[in-house]
């Protein structure tokens, strides 16, 4: 399997606890559970949102509806931008109310779904969740993860300054040119490559 993502609130994705992490799940949190499994390199990538507080029900409903719409519209020779447009139309038809104030739900425009190849979780094609003009088409035999992200904020995520928790060797950049300057780095690379190859892993699994 993959590291289980459990991103809270304003963290959109790719957070899993590092050793010593003391973050606690609270009743008012919204948590995005993101997990994957693979058998002989064939990968399934899956995610869902959950909360114990009903104030998040509407945004979770919007994202689920948008995801199912994207799945319903995918197919051979379908343009990626058309899938994104269908997702955006559904997602942004919803509103959510927090502290007696109503907010439009927006697609997070710089997050996407993706195709999946054997041993490669991100296979090179991105499936937008907005209409972006990408006329690339889905091809027969391809496998895709339709991933949608909704927000009551500005609809754009930024990298925050926190400890990274998800890692993977990228197939075309598996080993630095010229090798490793530090012996320990080379030994670590050999271990990671033998144990996981290009399958994602996390820091906890190294300790």
Describe this structure in words.
- It is a single chain.
- This protein has helices spanning 57-73, 80-91, 183-195, and strands at 5-8, 30-39, 42-51, 95-98, 101-104, 106-107, 113-116, 126-127, 143-145, 150-151, 166-167, 201-202.
- The longest helix is centred in the first third of the chain and has 17 residues, at 57-73.
- It has 3 helices and 12 strands.
- 20% of the residues lie in helices and 24% in strands.
- Helix 1 (57-73) runs antiparallel to helix 2.
- Strand 4 and strand 5 (101-104) form a beta hairpin.
- The strands form 5 sheets. A 3-stranded antiparallel β-sheet has the order 1-2-3. Strands 8-7-9 form a 3-stranded antiparallel β-sheet.
- It is globular, with a radius of gyration of 19 Å.
- With 207 residues, the chain is an alpha+beta fold.
Helical stretch tally: 3
The helicity comes to 10-25%
Main beta-sheet annotation: 3 strands, antiparallel
- Overall number of strands: 12
Following the backbone from N to C, one meets helices and strands in this order, namely EEEHHEEEEEEEEHE
Task: Please give a quick description of this structure.
With 207 residues, the chain is an alpha+beta fold.
Name the descriptors.
207 residues; three-stranded antiparallel β-sheet; 3 helices; 20% helix
Layout of strands and helices, then pairs:
Blueprint (H helix, E strand, L loop, with lengths): L4 E4 L21 E10 L2 E10 L5 H17 L6 H12 L3 E4 L2 E4 L1 E2 L5 E4 L9 E2 L15 E3 L4 E2 L14 E2 L15 H13 L5 E2 L5
Helix pairs in contact: 1-2
């Amino acid at each position: 399997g993959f590291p289980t993502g459990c991103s809270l609130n304003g963290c959109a994705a790719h957070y899993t606890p590092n050793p010593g992490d003391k973050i606690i799940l609270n009743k008012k949190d919204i948590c995005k559970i993101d997990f994957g499994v693979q058998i002989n390199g064939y990968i399934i990538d899956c995610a869902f949102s959950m909360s114990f507080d009903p104030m998040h029900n509407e945004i979770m409903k919007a994202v689920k509806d948008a995801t199912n719409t994207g799945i319903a519209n995918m197919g051979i020779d379908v343009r990626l931008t058309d899938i994104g447009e269908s997702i955006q139309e559904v997602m942004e038809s919803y509103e959510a109310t927090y502290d007696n104030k109503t907010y439009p739900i927006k697609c997070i425009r710089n997050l996407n779904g993706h195709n999946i190849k054997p041993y490669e979780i991100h296979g090179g094609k991105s499936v937008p969740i907005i209409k972006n003009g990408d006329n690339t088409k889905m091809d027969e035999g391809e496998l895709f993860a339709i991933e949608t992200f909704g927000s009551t904020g500005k609809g754009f995520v930024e990298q925050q300054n926190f400890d990274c928790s998800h890692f993977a060797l990228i197939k075309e950049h598996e080993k630095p040119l010229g090798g490793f300057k530090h012996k320990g780095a080379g030994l670590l690379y050999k271990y990671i490559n033998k144990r996981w190859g290009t399958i994602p892993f996390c820091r906890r699994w190294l300790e």
